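Protocol step 4 of 6: structure prediction from sequence.
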Amino acid sequence: MATKTVTVGILALQGNFAEHAALLAAMSVQVQYVRTVQDLEQCTHLIIPGGESTTISLLLASTGLDAAITDRCRASTLSVMGICAGAILVATKITGKNPPASLGLIDITIDRNAYGNQLESFDASLIVSHVDRPVRASFIRAPVITHVGKDVEVLAMHGEHPVIVRAGNVWALTCHPELRDEESIHRLFIAS
């Protein structure tokens, strides 16, 4: 039986997509920058990176990528991992000031910038299910997951809040493991 070729797309409309590309290159993973629906068609997985969630949301709509991502994700032909701003965009409900349009892919409620401003950013060591050692990650103007649906698996907590969750082929992270050259979460995602 032939093994499935994995191509990880990185949404490259705005945000920290280059950091994900560098991490995946170090892991010898095939990467595709995604700026168009045609780019997305080449991908088995998609990372929606951190950045400015409203800007990314508007760019997704203007390129038609919002519908393409949603359709493929719901058809289970694409796995999606939203990180920070990306986590906001994959949530079914967004709270906070001026919430952007959501893709509505995972049953979570998320509060934008709930950890505070840029000066209140921090690093943390996380205990993550399916990883046999602590994982370092950065929280930068991070959102907070305030509610998870019954079919959502919580993989890591920070204090009282889930920070890494998944449901089927959709993942949401409120932290940035890629900024600490941490491969373990990306490896779990690619294997899913």
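Step 5 (inspection) to follow. The chain has a mean pLDDT of 93.
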